[in-house]
Amino acid sequence: MRAVILVSAVGLLVAVSLAQAVRTPIPEGLAWAQWGVDARRSHFQAQIGGITRPRIRWVALGGAIEEPMLFGGTLAVPQIPSPATFPPRYVRYTFFAPANGRRVGAFGPFWGQAATPTTINAAVYVATDTNLLVGVLYNWPAYLFAGGQYDSFLYAPNPGPVLDPAFLGADHSEIIYVRPAYHANLGVYTDGAVGYAFFGDNFGGITAIGVVWVVTISAAALAVGEIRVLASEVFVLDDRLGFGFMPGAVYGYSATLADGLSTRLLLTDHAGTLLAYNPTLPSRAQFPPVWVTNLSLLSQGDRVDPNEPTSPLDPIPSDAIDRPIVINRDGTRAIVCASNFGRLYAIDPNSATPVPIWRLKLHNTQRIPIMGGPSIGPDGAGNETVYVVGRTSATLCSLYAIDLANGTIKWVFPLEGISRCTPTIDANGNLYIGNERGTLFCISPDGTLRWRLSLGASIRVSPILLPIDLNQDNTPDPLLIVAASNRLLYAIEETPTIGDISPRVPPGRGE
Asked: I need a surface site. Which of 28, 34, 293, 468 has the fewest CB within 10 A?
């Protein structure tokens, strides 16, 4: 979106021409969001297979109010602390060791509803003290912790000590004051050189924050094959002026990845509006969206009976888009939910005019509100499937599997109670989801139950699946983190096979 111009405090200038020269695609494996490169678009964890025979590895106090994130080798968990620690309405992030669940630190307080932390890729420009650009590192993290109301905390670890262990530069962190932010997930996009954390607020305002480091090394030392860091400076890029305002409170964001560039950035709000931006456009004070639509327009072709072409038209007068948009793996399908009406629309985010590729009612005669999802994952045969949770009665929900290609319902799995979780999907297509009765389900991509586990209290936060080396054999193992409303955090692992004497881990010591 922006040609990066960096000027250091000692006069280093990285020219525009050089900045343009390094606008190459970010590597495919770049881990710059909490779900790999997925940025919470689909809850698909492609890095690890799932759990066949579950057992609880550890339990820690505090639960979670949003999905945790792996942060520098620790588990960062948004929590409501005890009233004795912080006043009401304050939240914090508690850090746990993922292997044993022991509390290793905490950060806060934040006022309001904490969001799931987000990782963005910071660009690291390495230059000599004679103003020679040596190279650029793309896969360097920066972390954003959002309180959900008035403040956000940006943490950008200093790359200087990594390049030169003798360099003792301090890590950089700062509080970013933002307008009152709506309780929603943080989004992530990239212009090919810098990643941006993207979030909206109750008034339709939009903020985008990026991070760039400039590391200065000694030209004399480099001439003899050594790297000696002299200085390391950080720059925070604010793109909020590039975007306008949305009609309603901003809810969801999603970015496509095409060759390492986010060529489409999709935003939704509670007024049913859907906007698409191209964050790779040339710099300008403010740029218009590529296209704008809403649920009323998307639903103009809906019929009372979708299977009968002569059935009366049944458009939506108005509805909120209060579920995130998800985009499939090649960026050709975006799934939009009319949550209260129980309808789904597949559109091509790259088109000039977003006309539904397919449209679906979860039921022809009954409104089935969408409570969880959508998420997208493989079906075991190389195809992609969309999953949503629909409320079929006052006390029951079901999980719907929908063919991404044509919008037909493949199967429906009853969840034996109300569920508000977005299904998490492992590399093999297995789904993990909980309900209000405290039951954790593992469901095969063909819709059959693999296993179930009762945790004794409501599961309202989507489980997360992490690749962790639990056995210290340099091989990642699946670890499923599940929060229950009894303020307990569970880590679930694979039960060892016969002959494996790996012990259970004592409970953690979270507050």
From this structure: 28
216 in Cβ contact with 206 (< 8 Å): no
Question: Between the CA of residue 195 and those of 91, 238, 438, what are the distances in Å?
Answer: 26, 11, 37
What does the alpha-carbon distance between residue 364 and residue 486 come to, in Å, rounded to a whole number?
38
Number of Cβ atoms within 10 Å of the Cβ of 110: 25
Higher pLDDT, 50 or 511: 50
- Helix, strand, or coil (residue 219): helix
Q: Are strands 118-128 and 206-217 parallel, antiparallel or unpaired?
A: parallel
As given in the structure block, the two tokens for residue 388 are 């949503």
Eight-class DSSP state of 241: G
Question: What are the structure tokens assigned to 308, written together?
Answer: 């009968």
Distance CA 256, CA 112 (A): 29
Residue 40 has phi, psi (to 5 degrees) of: 65, 25
**Cα–Cα distances in Å, from 474 out to 102, 125, 486?**
21, 31, 34
Q: Are 187 and 254 in contact (CB under 8 A)?
A: yes
Whole-angstrom Cα distance, residue 238 to residue 152?
13
Q: Is the separation of the CB atoms in 421 and 464 below 8 Å? A: no
Q: How many CB atoms lie within 10 A of CB 337?
A: 27
29's tokens: 């494996």
Query: Which residues neighbour 84 within 8 Å (Cβ) at sequence distance 6 or greater?
Result: none
- 3-state SS, 318-353, equals CCCCCCCCEECCCCCCEEEEECCCCEEEEECCCCCC
Give pLDDT tens digits for 470-500: 988 888 899 999 999 878 999 999 998 765 5
Q: Which two tokens stand for residue 20?
A: 């343009």
For residues 511 and 485, give the distance between their C-alpha atoms in angstroms, rounded to a whole number: 15
From residue 262, alpha-carbon distances to 38, 118, 268 in Å are 12, 16, 17
pLDDT at 507 over 70: no
Q: Residue 23: pLDDT above 70?
A: no
Rg of the chain, C-alpha, whole Å: 23
Asked if 337 contacts 360 with a C-beta cutoff of 8 angstroms, the reply is: no
C-alpha span between 276 and 123 (Å, rounded): 25
Q: Is the pLDDT of residue 410 over 90?
A: yes
Quick: pLDDT tens for 348-378.
988 888 899 999 999 988 899 999 989 998 8
Determine the Cα–Cα distance for residues 392 and 398; give it in Å rounded to an integer.
Answer: 7
Q: Residue 63 is encoded by which pair of tokens? A: 């639960």
Per-residue burial over 188-202, b = 16 or more CB atoms within 10 Å of its CB, e = otherwise: bbbbbbbbbbbbbbb
